[in-house]
Amino acid sequence: MLFRSILAYIGVSFAAAAIELPDLPYSYDALAPSISEKTLRTHHSKHHAKYVNTANEMLKSDPSHAKLSAEKIIQDRKVRANNPSLFNNVAQAWNHAFYWKCLKPNGGGQPTGKLMGMIERDFGSFDALRTKMENEALTCFGSGWAWLGYDGKNRGHEKLVVIKTSGAENPMAFGITPLLTIDVWEHAYYLDFQEKRGDYVKAYFDTLVNWSFAEENLKSILPGHEEL
Amino acid sequence: MPTSANTAKQHSKSAPATQKTKPSLTTATMTKLSLALSAILVGSASAFSLDMKAQGGNTRRELLQKTAGLATSIAVPTIANAYSVPDLNYPFEALEPYIDAPTMKIHHDKHHVANINKATEGKPEVDILELQLNALEAVSLRGPAVRNNGGGHYNHAFFWDEMAPPDEAKKTKPSSELEAMINKSFGSMDEMKAAFEARAAPGALFGSGWVWVCVNQAGDELKLVGTPNQDNPLMKGVADEVMFPILGLDVWEHAYYLKYQNRRPEYVSNWWNVVNWNKVSENFAYVKEKKAGVPVRG
User: Fold this and answer.
1) Is A174 within the bounds of a domain?
2) How many domains in chain A?
3) Considering only CB atoms, which chain B residues are within 8 Å of A190?
4) A65 annotated binding-site participant
5) Does B261 contact A141 at a Cβ distance shorter than 8 Å?
6) Over the stretch A112-136, which tens digit does the pLDDT of each residue have?
7) What residues of chain A score a pLDDT lower than 70?
8) Does the keyword section mention Iron (chain A) (predicted)?
9) Is A48:A141 a contact under the CB 8 Å cutoff?
10) How many Cα atoms within 13 Å fall on the side-chain side of residue B213?
11) Which of B65, B118, B128, B196 could form a disulfide with B8 if both were Cys (CB 3.0 to 4.6 A apart)?
12) pLDDT tens-digit profile of B255-274?
């Protein structure tokens, strides 16, 4: 242990996988005009990159956590309580990597198949879901995220839920699997929409949202993959 | 200035339970917004009607009378008055190049105004300083607007008045009393600034919030406090004890993003160029003497 600690101290990481900054699945200008090239470039290459770098710096000097996956760190109540900076940076790295996949050029529309069926079952209609998610996004005070998630905690009564989280918080910490998210930190939209968060959220649903990503996320946790 | 001055003109016991006026835009630039509403009836308490007067093109807010019994209600205050967004003491472009004109205009005309609208929406009002003290415990009874938007109003009104154009700001300086307290608490002005900048860094004040220099309850020391969202140290429960801000910096991204984007530290270090130390010294003298928060305009 001492040897590993010394190596960790001098910068040798034992992490199974360091947290990575993924490339965007599209070019920086691909979401314009809803999200401008400047916003996307700053958001990815500055904000997201900073979270990733800070998280990795912290994990380097913290071998007990470096062995854990990002998901484990996010779900670990002790990390959140005792090392909020580590939690914030790891969670923000994860949240952003997830958010990029929730967007695509010429997105929008509605989901299909099983996801649509569950939306209609749990919210009444797609429009009702959209309204609820928009409302959570608008009422998330300060910096945070609005999510569509799958709550499988109550077996036999699994359901879709819409929640907002503050700062870096992620639904996984509450036993809910994220299916889709909207970043409502001001840095996600301020250059393009300023105080008009509602216009950004509308543009998200009208032109950006990638429902097939949410459908894939749901598929991966439905029966046959129930252990999350 | 919002005080407990009793200036009610009318007092109607038959007023409807809820009644509010639309925001009244009194200048072409929308810099002055006043809105009024009558109190919600709580139990047998009376509702009020509110009288707004225009004087020389400016709408002046009239505070409403406190009545016995109502003043004892803390968590569900029923003293009505109207908050408004005060005009800036300087043009939007006056803080250039450190804070850009578009940021000042949107920050003042949109973000601050939104706080006024939401803080008052369907709710009775109390003196803004009184509102801060019990803001956290009011959440369970009145919802989050008191804390979030009542705080947002106080914080922004406080923020505008502590700044001045750079040419003027550089001629200002801390009073000898304030300087002595800074030296006692931090070692020197430079050390205070360094500690403040560290507290305002994105990793230290994560997400949206404010950083404050406060006088503690004992009145014998300055403390740095970071608060999330629109909380402030006047709110009971936010810090170890209620403290009295004399200087505060908005580090919500909307305060700097158009000009600085992710470079919050650059915004923070540039901001010293527009701090009006004469006003900060006045704030210090006020809270030392009164052991109370600094009143704000609007």
Assistant:
1) yes
2) 1
3) 253-254, 257-258
4) no
5) no
6) 999 999 999 999 999 999 999 999 9
7) 1-17, 224-228
8) yes
9) no
10) 25
11) B65
12) 999 999 999 999 999 999 99
A&B contacts, CB < 8 Å: 59
Contact A142 B257 (CB under 8 A): no
Judged by a CB distance cut-off of 8 A, whether residue B76 touches chain A is no
User: CATH 3.55.40.20 residue ranges in chain B?
Assistant: 166-290
Verify whether the Cβ–Cβ distance A144 to B207 is below 8 Å.
yes
Q: According to the model, what pLDDT value does residue B143 have?
A: 85
Residue B120, both tokens? 């008052």
* Chain segment B157-175, per-residue pLDDT in tens: 999 999 999 999 999 999 9
Residue A44 domain-assigned?
no
A7 belongs to a structural domain: no
Interface of A to B at Cβ within 8 Å reads 42, 46-47, 50, 54, 84-85, 88, 141-144, 166-168, 185-187, 190-191, 194-195
Domain, as residue range, for A204 = 113-219
Under a CB-based contact definition with an 8 Å cutoff, are residues B189 and B281 in contact? no
User: Is A225 within any annotated ligand binding site?
Assistant: no
Amino acid at A8: A
Quickly state the pLDDT bin for B27 (edges 50, 70, 90).
very low
Nearest residue of chain A to residue B251 (CA atoms): A142
Which candidate, A216, A202, A219, A218, places its Cα nearest to that of A107? Answer: A202
What is the per-residue pLDDT across B54-106, written as a single tens digit (0 to 9) for each?
A: 333 333 333 333 333 333 344 444 334 578 899 999 999 999 999 999 999 99
Record: contact A142-B208, CB cut-off 8 A: yes
Q: Are B180 and B284 in contact (CB under 8 A)?
A: no
What is the predicted pLDDT for the residue at B138? 87
CA distances to A64, A130, A148, A159, A215 from A119, rounded to whole Å, are: 40, 10, 10, 9, 11
pLDDT over threshold 80, residue B279: yes
Mutate to test the interface with A, among B109, B253, B258, B263 (most CBs of A within 10 A): B253
Report the C-alpha dihedral over residues B261, B86, B269, A185, rounded to 10 degrees: -30
Confidence band, pLDDT 50/70/90 cuts, at residue B118: confident
Average predicted confidence (pLDDT) for chain B: 78
Residue A131: CATH number of its domain: 3.55.40.20
Residues of A in contact with B207 (CB under 8 A): 142-144, 166-168, 185
A31 domain residue, yes or no: no
How far apart are the CA of B253 and the nearest CA of chain A, in angstroms?
6
pLDDT of A11 reads 42
ipTM: 0.90
CA distance A27 to chain B (A): 20
Q: Rounded distance, CA B50 to CA A144, Å?
A: 38
CATH number of B166-290: 3.55.40.20
What gap in Å lies between CA A171 and CA A221, rounded to an integer? 15
Q: How much is the average pLDDT of B229-240?
A: 97
